[in-house]
Each structure stands twice: as structure tokens, then as C-alpha cells.
């Protein structure tokens, strides 16, 4: 028998959807929608999906869902269960929320915390200039607002869109954390609500920052056509060569595995080159730096590359207490005691850069409980001679140790 999925957004149902609903033998969905079904149909309030789907088998069934059921919705589960439903999509809650605030949303990262872990969604909010979150009880504006402490963001909470209690509220993360919210709601997280988003060429594309600090026109240059990663040292301001060299950064990034939904700490950030590169690859980043002048350099380098890096000034390991739980940590300075403090977080990936050989043994000891590997990197770069020929110029060797669980 046929199965139809109908999205609800407050607008009248299209003719095909109305006919399918009128002929349904069983109607399933959230309790607030079931009264839309005919009186003759069995009504199944959708809680656990499996039992509800079994009630639909072999009958003319209709599933009523909020917004676009193909967008983080029930259509995926139905297809996985072997159904091939006819779908009548309504406007998604994200589209309606951005319509209410009058902002384009083709640059927005859309994440879901509905039936999924909240932490990756929060990390995208920390990393991106514009994010929309599909929320759920226990993973809503209050929880997200509390997790965003330390990040400059403005939240827009859209409650009960197209319902009798519709309300849009613009407020800070701290204010959101202190309130209770009506379900259902969708949350918009914006770094600068007044900013005009850049012109992109694919949905969700962030602005492309050029290596000289300018912004290339993303309508003519695809965002993935940028300078890649392991950028040359000239791409960053730094203090007299105190910067993790590009060859070292290349391997460090491979072991840190930064990406959307992850949070990386860069401890002893210096110029912030590792922090900025992690952010360019989509991760949320916290850079810890004890020198005020270097902390300013991290901020300047992040701004020049169009990424958001939260800078935490202070001395590790003490300053690490209270920071949000990381997925990966790069330790560029601080010694074995810092590594021990990092391992206490239970982080899955740690990368440590060492220039002094006498720190190898104590650092390996501090990584107890981890699978520890390492390599010495001694790069020799081409350098031009006065006659136009080239020689090899050696850089200082660095030892990278990394621990994984």
C-alpha cells in the first residue's frame, strides 16, 4: 500500500497532499498534527519510530511531519526501512526563521541536535559566522547558549513557527542559557547579525580568505580553490621566526584531524599558525597563549584569514581549567606538565612539538595511556644562489610526538 509524507508549515495543504490525507487509513506524526487526519483513520502518535512504522505496514498511511520531511527528517528513516514514500514538502523551519529575520541563508551551516549529540553542533556554532541549529528538548537554546560562553555570538530563537505561540527573540548566549523555551524551536547563531553575507557559489560556503589577508570574490573563485593548508610562514605575522614551520604544520594537521564539529586547543599558540589552519579546515579553535603580544598576533592572523579563533590569555596548565572539552590538542610549548594536564581531559588526539631532545622521555611518560608515535622532521628547502642556481637550506629539526586513544 502507498505511504505519503506530508510536511506541515502552517500553510494550506497542496491538493495532492489533502487527497492523500483524506483517504488515509492510518495517520502518524507528532500529537499536535494528528487532528488534521480524517475521523475514520487510526491515529498513531510518533514516539519510537519502529513501532509506528509497523502500524503503517500494508495500509494507506500518511506521516505528518514539521516543515520539510526530507531535511533532517522522517524521509531518511522511511527509505532506510524499505519504503518509497510520496513526499509533499513544506518550507523548512530554517528557511522560515531566516525569512522572519530578512536575511539570506545560503552561507549558513545547518546542523541538527535533534536525536543527535549536541557537542558537534555547538562546535560548528563556535567555528562558523552563521549557523542554524535544529534543536530538541535537552539540546535547545538554553544548553547551546551555556556552551557558547566565551564566544561572541548573537542568538535568534524562533519558537512555534507558524503556530499560535510564534515568537522570535534576539539575545546573547548568556541570556538564552538563563531562560526556558517553548518547543518546537529553531536557533540561529550569528557572529554579526548586521553583516551582509558574502556571495557564494554553493550553499553553506564560508568566505574565502586569501593568503595576503584580502578576500577573493567567491562568485568567481570557488572556495576550495584557495591556497590549501600548511601555508608558508609569510602568510602569518610572527615574532622573529617563532612560528611552527609549514612542514611541521602539515604533519600536525594530519594527526589533529581538524574539521567541522570538532574543537581543537592550540596550547602555547605563539603566532597562532596551527590554530588558524585548524579553523580554516572548519574546526572550532581555542588558542592559549601567555604572552600578550603573541595573543594579539593570534587575533590578527585569525582576522587576516577570515576565521574565528578564541584566544585565551594565560599560563598553561592552570588556564586550561574550565575550557570546553577538546577533540584534539596541539601543544607547542609548556613542557610535560602541560601534556599531563591535557591528557587529564581524556582528549583522543594530542600532538606535541619538541625542539629540545631532553624533553622526549618525560613527554612520552606524560602520554601514558595513549598509543604514542613520533617522527623527527628535518626539512631542507630550495634556496636560490646569486648565480641563479639553487642549494638546500636546512631548517631546524623538530620532533613531533602524538598520542591517540
Written description of the protein model:
This protein is of the alpha/beta class and 405 residues long. The chain has 3 domains: 3-91, Tetrapyrrole methylase, N-terminal domain (Cobalt-precorrin-4 Transmethylase, domain 1); 94-190, 2-Layer Sandwich (Methyltransferase, Cobalt-precorrin-4 Transmethylase, Domain 2), CATH 3.30.950.10; 228-404, Rossmann fold, CATH 3.40.50.150. It is built from 12 helices and 19 strands. β6 (109-112), α5 (118-127) and β7 (130-134) form a beta-alpha-beta unit. α8 (246-256) packs across α9 and α11 (336-343) packs parallel to α12 (360-366). The longest helix is centred in the last third of the chain and has 13 residues, at 292-304. The model is unreliable at 208-225 (pLDDT under 50).
Provide keyphrases for this structure:
405 residues, Rossmann fold, Cobalt-precorrin-4 Transmethylase, domain 1
Poorly predicted regions: 208-225
Strand order of the largest sheet: 13-12-11-14-15-19-16
| N→C terminal distance | 49 Å
Report Rg. Answer: 26 Å
Number of helices: 12
**At CATH's second level, what is the architecture of the largest domain?**
3-Layer(aba) Sandwich
Major sheet details? 7 strands, mixed
The name of the CATH superfamily of the largest domain reads Vaccinia Virus protein VP39
Name the shape in a single word: elongated
Amino acid at each position: 500500500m502507498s505511504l505519503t509524507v506530508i510536511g506541515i508549515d502552517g500553510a494550506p495543504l497542496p491538493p495532492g497532499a489533502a487527497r492523500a490525507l483524506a483517504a488515509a487509513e492510518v495517520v502518524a506524526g507528532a500529537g499536535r498534527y494528528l487532528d488534521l487526519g480524517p475521523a475514520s483513520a487510526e491515529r498513531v502518535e510518533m514516539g519510537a519510530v519502529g513501532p509506528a512504522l509497523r502500524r503503517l505496514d500494508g495500509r494507506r498511511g500518511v506521516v505528518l511531519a514539521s516543515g520539510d520531511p526530507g531535511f533532517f527528517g522522517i524521509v531518511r528513516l522511511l527509505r532506510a526501512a524499505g519504503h518509497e514514500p510520496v513526499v509533499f514538502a513544506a518550507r523548512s523551519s530554517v528557511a522560515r526563521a531566516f525569512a522572519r529575520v530578512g536575511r539570506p541563508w545560503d552561507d549558513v551551516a545547518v546542523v541538527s541536535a535533534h536525536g543527535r549529540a549536541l557537542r558537534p553542533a555547538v562546535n560548528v556554532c563556535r567555528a562558523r559566522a552563521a549557523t542554524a541549529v535544529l534543536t530538541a528538548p535537552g539540546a535547545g537554546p538554553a544548553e547551546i547558549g551555556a556552551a557558547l560562553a566565551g564566544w561572541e555570538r548573537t542568538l535568534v530563537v524562533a519558537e512555534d513557527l507558524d503556530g499560535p505561540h510564534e515568537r522570535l527573540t534576539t539575545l546573547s548566549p548568556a541570556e538564552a542559557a538563563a531562560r526556558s523555551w517553548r518547543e518546537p524551536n529553531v536557533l540561529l547563531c550569528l557572529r554579526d547579525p548586521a553583516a551582509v553575507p558574502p556571495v557564494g557559489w554553493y550553499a553553506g560556503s564560508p568566505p574565502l580568505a586569501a593568503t595576503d589577508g584580502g578576500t577573493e570574490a567567491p562568485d568567481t573563485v570557488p572556495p576550495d580553490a584557495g591556497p590549501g593548508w600548511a601555508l608558508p610562514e609569510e602568510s602569518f605575522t610572527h615574532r622573529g621566526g617563532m612560528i611552527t614551520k609549514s612542514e611541521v604544520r602539515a604533519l600536525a594537521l594530519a594527526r589533529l584531524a581538524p574539521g567541522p564539529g570538532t574543537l581543537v586547543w592550540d596550547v602555547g599558540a605563539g603566532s597562532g599558525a596551527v590554530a588558524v589552519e585548524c579553523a580554516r579546515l572548519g574546526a572550532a579553535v581555542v588558542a592559549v597563549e601567555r604572552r600578550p603580544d603573541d595573543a594579539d598576533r593570534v587575533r590578527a592572523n585569525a582576522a587576516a584569514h577570515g576565521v574565528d579563533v578564541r584566544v585565551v590569555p594565560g599560563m598553561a596548565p592552570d588556564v586550561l581549567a574550565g575550557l570546553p572539552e577538546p577533540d584534539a590538542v596541539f601543544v607547542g610549548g609548556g613542557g610535560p606538565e602541560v601534556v599531563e594536564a591535557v591528557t587529564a581531559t581524556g582528549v583522543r588526539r594530542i600532538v606535541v612539538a619538541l625542539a629540545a631532545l631532553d624533553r622526549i622521555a618525560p613527554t612520552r611518560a606524560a602520554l601514558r595511556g595513549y598509543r604514542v608515535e613520533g617522527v623527527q622532521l628535518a626539512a631542507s628547502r630550495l634556496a636560490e644562489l646569486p648565480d641563479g642556481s639553487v642549494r638546500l637550506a636546512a631548517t631546524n629539526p623538530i620532533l613531533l610526538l602524538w598520542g591517540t586513544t
